[in-house]
Amino acid sequence: MKAAVIQGPGNIRVEHVPDPRIHEPHDAVVAVTHAAICGSDLWAYQGTAPRKPGQRMGHEFIGVVEEIGREVTTVRPGDRVIAPFVWSDGTCAFCAEGLHTSCERGGFWGVPGTDGGQGEAVRVPFADGTLIKVPAGADDTLDRALLTLCDVMGTGHHAAVAAGVRHGDTVVVVGDGAVGLCGVLAARRLGAERVVLLGRHPQRTALARCFGATETVPERGEEAIARLRDLIPGRGAPAVIEAVGTWESLHTAISVARPGAAVGFVGAPHGVGGKVDVRQLFDKNVSLRGGVAPVRAYIPQLLPDVLDGRLDPSAVFDLSIRLADTPIGYAAMQERHAIKALIRV
Asked: How far, CA to CA in Å, does 183 sit from each of 121, 175, 202, 220, 318?
């Protein structure tokens, strides 16, 4: 089969790789129909996250079950399925708590020796604990929205939940990438009355407004903090979403949180050049929550809203390509010509 691999910084190729097959009785093989490029994939592309030459790429995919191991009971060949960005056994103590990203036998797609989502097929360990079946008869036109549930929509929702967004809240979202944009949707879904997005790219801020952002702030750093303090009375926002992962973005998020607020941080840390402002957290009784989003726990909550049209994050995909053109998608996202690329396999 063909799959995207990385051979070095800036060097993504689509190459022939071995076909996946059943190794364990709990495995399934899924034929990928749609995959995506994530902002975190760009770290390897930029050379800031180490990857071995030939390592598979991608962790967001949906598809159709081709084959199952003898112990798999929840999906059958022919089922359309959604794959969270990690696999999990569904039976350990952490999975029982809804923290599938800490599963004792779980793992991430694309680590050495495993398939990545940006390929024609994937071997899925612990299929019963990992895959979510799409109800039979679901509209095929929803594939783009369903694909967001693998990561970015679930991650945006995790941020909003961690920030404690409540009905009527004012929410600040730091970051205008796909996760930040989905954070806007998530905050509005949970009842936020006002959502202020920090972003400076016109295409992204326009989409944020379509998703329900009431205001956008292009400034960064101390200028952004000052602007937000002017915009939001009462010493800051009661809920803040941090969706970038740099020290500056986290500092901004903490600084604009009102006393007693929570910051839901889901921007995976990278390029952090400073320290968390513990003094501010302490002095203002601000909680810092979040981390790797356990999207497997959230998909059953979000899927019904996607299926009935109440939640539609599909517009975060503003570039659609074929698998053979995956390198073009990486370049487009790296150069900020695209928010998020969808790969049709």
From this structure: 30, 9, 18, 19, 17
